């Protein structure tokens, strides 16, 4: 592999890793506040991607408006999911909650497939379509948008969590929900906020990735799993490690394909992420189990 | 006198009636038009029973059960077609290979619990699905492979739906009876202890991980046998039934069947199959309806009757048997007079909670 190719793979890894990081942030914020793994996280991304196409291309809305509506809808779906499905199942066991979020995931997916069709769609890029040459690698402007927006979202989330009252209350719920409610924090409202943020972040991930990687109604499962890998690296507690985990996963995936060892064609790219998932789960099983017991 | 005797032997009558009903189904003058769907219900029931043992009794989630189903189908298909092995031998090798695979991955992944176990099994299911698609020199890739031979005994070939119906239901009932015995044995009690409280079970000398892995292997062997029967029935396998939705569909069957119920598996598999293959097919102007309905079923059943639909129906019948005489009095009772536990989230009376409260 030449240096140029290396940079090419590195850049696409960084781009895809940013998306995994965004999805992972959604997992992390919901898990930290509610101890629920939201199996529908990937569907928020799908909603963002599909809606940005439907609104901008089919309905002909101006691009910025379409993107904002897509994000808002994803956030509203997150809120609805919490209010209608999660909150009504009070004191549900872990198995019940897993099944409920999976039910929500395939429900959202079914509605999307029904309303938007089952074809793969490709919304227009935010700006221009030519490539920029940088360090021997060709970079699409959309890739810069993806990396930039991920960076921005992470910073904003960090500022929100550390500098606002609501953000601090969310962190209090993550550390100790019982104590948080004792000092007067409305833990249910916090859970709702966590779902809204996760929905919005998922929607943002969807609108930025769709012009590059295309969108379809069934894209959610695989993306969700990769975001989960990113979140598992951080033990579902730390946004920063989640972002790092996502980016590392994206780069590893792309470099492994770039190395081109014998049977490993690009079709096996997803297998790399899945094996990484299993390895991370097994390596961190002790810590994850401890976190679950504490929660 | 007579009545008491009937009541005592009621279970035997019920089983005999069920058997006669099953035997008659494929005849044209009875329910012959449902033979094909009943074969699929039998195949799905076999997998669902395994999933019920794993999820309902032991309390462990598997979101990759379709992978074992697919492994059984592909092993059978490849061995009997490409390598021209005897289909029965292929089926046996498939079951052993799938069981061994489940055993090998079982020990590491059952170090995980709850959410992480669910994700790990989901990951394994997806890996298998990618492999079914990508190892196209063996599996035929996304198009799959056709021309798999029928099963046969001596010169008797299972070449019609009529014959295969009995073959599939023979396996299915054998698995149901085996599972029923497991549930009622020492092992079954150990599994329920694990579900109730792992630490307590461990302290009573139950080797928790070992039991979980055993049941996982058993459920994978069930799924593999079902896969083999599926391959020799349709004579065509493709990766499509073994994807993530395939696994979710199996969970839907287990959830409808009442997770911790062996016989409920037939009910779950039957309802789901009928829904997707008979009823929803009429709505082709409304695509994706099956997925939407599965999603709704999963959410609603888990929210309102977490023990599963079949069990809830069973306890409703039981409650009515006990309380039917008092029904008018119960209807007249004001809402406020019920203990608060029998009310649901909306402050309304929850039927399921009421049944649970008044069970003897």
Structure description:
- The complex is a heterodimer of chains A (295) and B (360).
- By secondary structure, chain A is mainly α.
- Chain A has a single domain (3-294), classed as ABC transporter involved in vitamin B12 uptake, BtuC (Orthogonal Bundle), CATH 1.10.3470.
- Chain A is 76% helix and 2% strand.
- Chain A is built from twelve helices and two strands; from the N terminus they run ααααββαααααααα.
- In chain A, α1 crosses α6 (165-175) and α1 (3-34) packs across α9.
- Chain B folds into three domains: 1-30; 31-304, ABC transporter involved in vitamin B12 uptake, BtuC (Orthogonal Bundle), CATH 1.10.3470; 314-358, no CATH class.
- Helices cover 70% and strands 2% of the residues of chain B.
- Chain B has helices at 2-8, 10-24, 35-57, 65-82, 87-109, 114-134, 136-139, 161-184, 186-196, 198-203, 208-234, 244-256, 264-279, 289-304, 309-323, 327-332, 351-358, and strands at 145-146, 152-153, 156-157, 236-237.
- In chain B, the strands form two sheets. A two-stranded antiparallel ribbon of chain B has the order 1-4. Chain B has a two-stranded antiparallel ribbon with strand order 2-3.
- Chain B is globular and about 70 Å long.
- Mean pLDDT of chain B is 84; it is low at 343-349 and 356-360.
- Classes of the chains: A mainly alpha (295), B mainly alpha (360).
- Chains A and B meet through α4, α9, α11 and α12 of A and α6, α12 and α14 of B.
Observed structural traits:
heterodimer, A: 295 residues, mainly alpha, ABC transporter involved in vitamin B12 uptake, BtuC, 12 helices, B: ABC transporter involved in vitamin B12 uptake, BtuC, two-stranded antiparallel ribbon, 17 helices, 70% helix
- For this structure, the quaternary state is heterodimer
| Percent of sequence in beta strands of chain A | under 5%
- The structural domain count of chain A equals 1
Shape verdict of chain B: globular
Whole-angstrom Rg of chain B: 22 Å
The name CATH uses for the topology of chain A is ABC transporter involved in vitamin B12 uptake, BtuC
Give the total of beta strands of chain B: 4
CATH architecture of the largest domain in chain B: Orthogonal Bundle
Order of helices and strands of chain A: HHHHEEHHHHHHHH
Average pLDDT of chain B, to the nearest integer?
Answer: 84
CATH class of the largest domain in chain B: Mainly Alpha
Number of helices of chain A: 12
Tertiary shape of chain A: globular
Give the second-level CATH assignment, the architecture of chain A: Orthogonal Bundle
Number of strands of chain A: 2
Reading side by side through the largest sheet of chain A, how are the strands ordered? 1-2
Rg of chain A, alpha carbons: 19 Å
């Amino acid at each position: 592999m030449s240096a140029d190719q290396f940079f090419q793979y590195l850049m696409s890894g960084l781009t895809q890793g940013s998306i995994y990081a965004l999805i992972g942030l959604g997992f992390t914020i919901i898990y930290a506040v509610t101890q629920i793994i939201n199996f529908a996280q990937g569907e928020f991304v799908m909603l963002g991607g599909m809606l940005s196409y439907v609104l901008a291309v089919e309905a002909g809305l101006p691009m910025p408006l379409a993107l904002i509506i897509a994000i808002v809808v994803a956030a509203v779906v997150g809120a609805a999911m919490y209010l209608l499905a999660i909150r009504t199942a009070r004191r549900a066991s872990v198995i019940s909650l897993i099944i409920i979020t999976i039910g929500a995931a395939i429900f959202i997916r079914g509605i999307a497939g029904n309303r938007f069709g089952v074809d793969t769609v490709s919304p227009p890029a935010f700006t221009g379509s030519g490539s920029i040459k940088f360090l021997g690698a060709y970079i699409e402007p959309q890739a810069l948008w993806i990396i930039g927006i991920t960076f921005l979202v992470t910073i904003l989330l960090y500022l929100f969590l550390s500098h606002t009252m609501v953000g601090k209350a969310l962190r209090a719920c993550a550390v100790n929900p019982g104590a948080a409610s004792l000092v007067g924090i409305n833990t249910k409202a916090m859970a709702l906020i966590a779902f809204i943020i996760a929905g919005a972040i998922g929607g943002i991930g969807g609108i930025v990735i769709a012009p590059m990687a295309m969108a379809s109604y069934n894209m959610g499962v695989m993306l969700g799993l990769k975001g989960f890998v990113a979140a598992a690296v951080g033990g579902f507690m730390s946004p920063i490690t989640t972002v790092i985990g996502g980016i590392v996963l994206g780069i590893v995936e792309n470099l492994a394909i770039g190395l081109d060892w014998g049977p490993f064609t690009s079709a096996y790219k997803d297998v790399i992420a899945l094996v990484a998932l299993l390895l991370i789960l097994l390596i961190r099983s002790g810590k994850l189990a401890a976190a679950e017991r504490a929660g | 006198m007579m009545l008491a005797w009937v009541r005592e032997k009621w279970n035997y009558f019920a089983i005999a009636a069920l058997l006669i009903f099953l035997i008659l189904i494929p005849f044209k003058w009875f329910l012959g038009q449902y033979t094909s769907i009943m074969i699929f219900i039998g195949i799905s029931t076999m997998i669902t029973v395994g999933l019920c043992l794993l999820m309902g009794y032991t309390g462990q989630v598997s979101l990759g059960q379709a992978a074992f189903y697919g492994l059984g189908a592909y092993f059978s298909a490849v061995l009997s077609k490409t390598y021209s092995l005897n289909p029965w031998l292929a089926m046996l090798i498939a079951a052993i290979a799938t069981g061994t695979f489940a055993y090998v991955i079982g020990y590491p992944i059952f170090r995980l619990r709850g959410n992480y176990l669910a994700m790990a099994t989901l990951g394994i299911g997806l890996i298998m699905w990618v492999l079914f698609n990508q190892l196209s020199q063996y599996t035929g890739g996304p198009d799959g492979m056709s021309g798999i031979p029928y099963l046969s005994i001596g010169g008797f070939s299972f070449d019609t739906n009529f014959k295969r119906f009995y073959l599939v239901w023979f396996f299915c009932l054998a698995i149901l009876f085996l599972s029923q015995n497991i549930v009622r044995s020492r092992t079954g009690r150990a599994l329920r202890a694990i579900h109730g409280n792992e630490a307590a079970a461990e302290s009573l000398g139950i080797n928790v991980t070992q039991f979980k892995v055993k049941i996982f292997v058993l459920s994978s062997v069930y799924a593999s046998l079902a896969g083999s029967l599926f391959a020799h029935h349709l004579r065509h396998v493709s990766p499509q039934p073994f994807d993530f939705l395939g696994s979710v569909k199996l969970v839907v069957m287990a959830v409808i069947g009442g997770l911790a119920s062996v016989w409920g598996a037939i009910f779950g598999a039957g309802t789901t199959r009928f829904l997707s293959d008979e009823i929803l097919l009429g709505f082709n102007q409304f695509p994706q309806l099956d997925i939407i309905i599965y999603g709704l079923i999963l959410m609603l059943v888990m929210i309102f009757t977490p023990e599963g639909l079949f069990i809830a129906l069973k306890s409703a019948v039981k409650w009515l048997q006990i309380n039917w005489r008092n029904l008018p009095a119960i209807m007249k009772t004001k809402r406020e007079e019920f203990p608060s536990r029998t009310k649901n989230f909306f402050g309304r009376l929850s039927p399921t909670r009421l049944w649970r409260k008044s069970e003897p």
